[in-house]
Amino acid sequence: MATNDPLNLDEAGEWAGLWWLPGDPDEQVPGVLPYDPEGVLSLLLIGAFEDRITSSPAPGVTAYHEGTRIAAC
Hints:
There is one protein chain. This protein has strands at about 15-20, 25-35, 45, 50-60, 60-70. The protein has about 70 residues and is mostly beta strands. The strands form 2 sheets. A 3-stranded antiparallel beta sheet has the order 1-2-3, with no helix packed on it.
């Protein structure tokens, strides 16, 4: 069975949590990060990151703009 010890990379493991893109820690998406000792690492998201360009001109108001943002991971 998988271990959750983050320092034991000799065994398979998986970590569930909230994930975000660099530069946008406020937009978090739940997901699972599985790892196997062969070095395979992947991130399985439950949902998706918003790629539309948005702004918040007032509290509780979201404006959507033309185009999409490109995220560098």
